[in-house]
């Protein structure tokens, strides 16, 4: 038998537990928590990203969803991918993130707009929606920056995310079977975009064989770290259609215990990536910069609301 995920609010004691889990994550990563929960955005970088959208024929206004999404992407690009050696790659990372934030938002609140995307993209048709057309053009530009294999992996990862976002919304009330413990990670893998984000960590000129064995563990680390650090804001929003909630339900444990387990998975994956890449000093340094930046991105972005927890006051 199965049951749909029940909505359950965490109590005040749980917030202390969440804070402890987050602090332990930073301690294990040996990343000092910043003195404040914000990082100034490079205005010229953000302007360059907006110019990219304009070059694709998309008109941006400050009140538009794409403006807000590019802002999120620019914070990600600046903090987590600032180590990339060229401006074009940095802009692409911001736009890649920005357009997929658009998809994420639409899938949650207006899934019918997202549904035609896959078919139009595969068949080379113009998207019926200007925002979706910007998504399509951004994905196609991967071939301008990356070798064919890496570009294909990046685009495939994004398409899987788009399709997975539709599936996740449509099946949000699916009754979960206790005999399908793998299902939570299956859905998480569909919507994680971890393969693309892992590949983009490394400059396009780096041969795939140098880092490909690290991609599975790196993908787990990216997803698990995001799952942990996005839990607080999702809980405040009453969101139960997420990985932590599914894991808790499928294992018959509390959300806090599920959160702690996922944090441990992230820490374990991080250690494996270090071992795989550690033999190559340059690759190890690239991962270290990304790892710190990706973690701090969740602090700097108001989207995750981590400043509410005043973590830096408890270190």
UniProtKB/TrEMBL annotation:
Keywords: Lyase
InterPro entries in the cross-refs: Isoprenoid_synthase_dom_sf, Trichodiene_synth
Cross-referenced SUPFAM superfamilies: Terpenoid synthases (SSF48576)
A GO term, aspect molecular function: carbon-oxygen lyase activity, acting on phosphates
Pfam families to which the protein is assigned, alphabetical: TRI5
Similarity remark: Belongs to the trichodiene synthase family.
Protein name: Terpenoid synthase
Annotated organism of origin: Coniophora puteana (strain RWD-64-598)
């Amino acid at each position: 038998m199965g049951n749909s995920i029940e909505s359950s609010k965490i109590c005040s004691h749980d917030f202390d537990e969440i804070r402890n889990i987050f602090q332990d994550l930073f301690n294990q990563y040996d990343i000092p928590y910043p003195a404040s929960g914000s990082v100034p955005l490079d205005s010229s970088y953000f302007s360059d990203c907006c110019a990219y959208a304009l070059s694709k024929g998309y008109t941006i206004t400050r009140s538009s969803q794409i403006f807000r999404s590019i802002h999120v992407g620019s914070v990600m690009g600046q903090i987590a991918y600032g180590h990339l050696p060229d401006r074009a790659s940095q802009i692409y990372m911001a736009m890649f993130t920005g357009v997929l934030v658009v998809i994420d938002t639409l899938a949650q609140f207006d899934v019918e707009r997202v549904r035609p995307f896959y078919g139009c993209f595969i068949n080379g048709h113009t998207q019926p929606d200007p925002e979706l057309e910007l998504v399509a053009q951004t994905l196609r530009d991967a071939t301008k920056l990356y070798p064919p294999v890496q570009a294909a992996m990046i685009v495939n990862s994004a398409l899987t995310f788009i399709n997975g976002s539709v599936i996740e919304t449509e099946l949000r009330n699916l009754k979960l079977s206790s005999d399908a413990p793998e299902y939570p990670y299956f859905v998480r893998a569909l919507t994680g975009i971890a393969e693309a984000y892992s590949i983009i960590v490394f400059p396009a000129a780096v041969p795939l064989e140098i880092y490909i064995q690290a991609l599975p563990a790196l993908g787990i680390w990216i997803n698990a770290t995001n799952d942990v650090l996005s839990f607080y804001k999702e809980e405040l929003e009453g969101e139960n259609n997420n990985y932590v909630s599914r894991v808790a339900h499928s294992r018959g444990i509390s959300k806090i215990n599920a959160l702690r387990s996922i944090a441990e998975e992230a820490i374990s994956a991080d250690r494996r990536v270090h071992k795989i890449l550690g033999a190559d000093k340059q690759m190890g340094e690239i991962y270290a910069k990304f790892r710190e930046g990706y973690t701090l991105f969740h602090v700097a972005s108001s989207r995750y609301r981590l400043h509410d927890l005043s973590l830096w006051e408890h270190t």
